[in-house]
């Protein structure tokens, strides 16, 4: 096992990784920007190194600064958390060249999955169901028209280098397609330095369902089941749960097997997430793969009892999955996570500042992952997630009731948070029914406005 690990992240996920290391007897090195001097990830790590000014580009995303810190502290490995450098294949290559173990998949696979149309073709070859769409990159507007005729309208144009909702256009007829294709491509070229586009059949009211996997470096892959992530706004997830009410044990087992086989073929290792869309007929299609630990990994941990971050560390140290997961994976009860963001409740604009009062809920089946504290400061430079509130119950009803109780005891003063929004969502009939899709928040806000 590693002797010492550097955590190339901040906030709750940095603390989450530090906690896993502590429990495993691994020494930890935090890195921090000048804005995070008083952060808990700095306080709770064994060592901490300042790597630059507040802006992420000058600190957490500064590869030479992070690698220098790793070399000075003489670490064996780097855990990138999520966001920041976690899906940067070049960073993983620099780690490899510096003899530092990158705790994540091989850079070649990260790069391939980062090219969304290549990921699609790769999954298709591995027999994972994909949506009807273009084979690879669309060369020009003429080819776009041909593909759309084959696929049938409506179609969605997506940027190969996009993901997470950026660089997409929904197209409903041939008249609007050429202009949309060129606009989207130009936009993608400016945003990602790559204007390549691909196309899929557009699903009108999809559910977002994703499968968590773990894979070792010896070719063994294991599915940990799915999460339902349809409650989102502007491509930011707000609530995630496990399991999904739409996935039967049979489908979970079958799709799990298909995924395991495909990732074995690809040569994947460490933690990963396969994203799917489910249409109104309950059919499920691969859209993207995330090659990192995700914000919402906790709901899977709660229902499976598997510590995903500890598994990541053990996998990266060369252990076999069979020694990490010694019993068949089962799904026990139901877990829901609310993302508590420092945001203005209606406008969703960031709400930075000093926290003047802070109380965390607790009790049976209640978990809070946070790096915030009373008198703590939420800096304006980073993403707005300040805590995750996760509730586990014997079923969805119990988990929801527990969440409402926990939300009512979660006190954050001095800044605005999404706590009041979550309270309203948990009182909403459509949410409580479990019968919703990715358009839920739009309908929810309309209902709220009409009250
Ligand atoms: C789609 C889609 C409908 N049809 N693809 C948005 C984020 C990116 N990961 C993929 N996205 C979508 N792709 C096809 N073929 C609808 C969305 C989408 C969406 C997906 C998941 C969760 C929320 C969403 C919100 C709007 C659109």
Features:
451 residues, alpha+beta, Dna Ligase, domain 1, 3 domains, five-stranded parallel beta sheet, 16 helices, binds ligand MV4
Layout: helices, strands, pairs:
Blueprint: E1 4-7, H1 11-23, E2 27-33, H2 40-44, E3 47-52, H3 63-73, E4 77-79, H4 89-97, E5 101-102, H5 107-114, H6 116-125, H7 141-151, E6 155-163, E7 166-171, H8 177-192, E8 197-201, E9 207-215, E10 221-233, E11 236-242, H9 249-266, E12 270-278, E13 284-290, H10 297-304, H11 308-316, H12 321-324, E14 334-341, E15 353-354, E16 357-359, E17 366-370, E18 377-378, E19 385-393, H13 396-409, E20 411-413, H14 419-425, H15 429-433, H16 440-449
Parallel strand pairs: 1-2, 1-4, 2-3, 4-5
Antiparallel strand pairs: 6-7, 6-8, 9-10, 9-12, 10-11, 11-14, 12-13, 14-19, 15-18, 16-20, 17-19
Helix pairs in contact: 4-5, 7-8
Task: Give a quick precis of the structure.
The protein has 451 residues and is of the alpha+beta class.
């Amino acid at each position: 096992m590693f002797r010492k690990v550097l955590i190339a992240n901040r906030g709750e996920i940095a603390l989450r990784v530090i906690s896993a290391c502590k429990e495993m007897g691994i020494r930890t090195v935090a890195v921090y920007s000048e804005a995070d001097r008083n952060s808990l990830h700095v306080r709770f790590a064994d060592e901490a190194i300042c790597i630059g000014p507040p802006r992420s580009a000058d600190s957490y995303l500064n590869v030479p600064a992070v690698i220098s810190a790793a070399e000075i502290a003489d670490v064996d490995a780097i855990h990138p958390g999520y966001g920041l450098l976690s899906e940067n294949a070049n960073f993983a290559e620099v780690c490899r060249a510096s003899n530092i173990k990158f705790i994540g998949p091989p850079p070649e696979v990260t790069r391939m999955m980062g090219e969304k149309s290549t990921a699609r073709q790769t999954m298709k070859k591995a027999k994972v169901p994909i949506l009807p769409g273009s084979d690879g990159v669309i060369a020009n507007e003429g080819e776009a028209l041909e593909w759309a005729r084959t696929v049938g309208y409506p179609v969605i144009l997506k940027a190969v280098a996009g993901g997470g909702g950026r660089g997409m256009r929904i197209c409903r007829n041939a008249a609007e397609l050429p202009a949309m294709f060129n606009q989207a491509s130009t936009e993608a070229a400016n945003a990602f330095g790559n204007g390549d586009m691909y196309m899929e059949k557009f699903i009108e009211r999809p559910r977002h369902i994703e499968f968590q996997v773990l894979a070792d470096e010896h070719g063994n892959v294991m599915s940990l089941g799915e999460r339902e992530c349809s409650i989102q706004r502007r491509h930011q997830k707000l609530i995630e749960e496990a399991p999904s009410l739409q996935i039967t044990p049979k489908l979970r087992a079958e799709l799990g097997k298909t995924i395991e086989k495909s990732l074995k073929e690809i040569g994947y290792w460490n933690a990963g997430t396969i994203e799917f869309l489910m249409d109104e007929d309950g059919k499920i299609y691969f859209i993207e793969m995330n090659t990192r630990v995700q914000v919402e990994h906790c709901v899977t941990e709660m229902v499976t009892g598997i510590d995903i971050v500890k598994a990541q560390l053990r996998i990266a140290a060369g252990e076999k999955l069979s020694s990490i997961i010694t019993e068949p994976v089962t799904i026990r009860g139901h877990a829901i996570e609310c993302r508590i963001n420092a945001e203005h409740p209606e406008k969703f604009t960031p709400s930075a500042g000093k926290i003047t009062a802070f109380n965390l809920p607790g009790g049976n089946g209640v978990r809070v992952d946070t790096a915030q504290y009373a008198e703590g400061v939420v800096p304006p430079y980073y993403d707005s997630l300040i805590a995750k509130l996760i509730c586990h119950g014997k079923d969805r009803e119990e988990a929801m009731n527990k969440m409402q109780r926990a939300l009512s005891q979660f006190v954050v003063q001095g800044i605005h948070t999404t706590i009041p929004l979550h309270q309203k969502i948990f009182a909403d009939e459509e949410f409580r029914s479990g019968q919703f899709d990715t358009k839920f928040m739009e309908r929810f806000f309309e209902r709220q406005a009409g009250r």
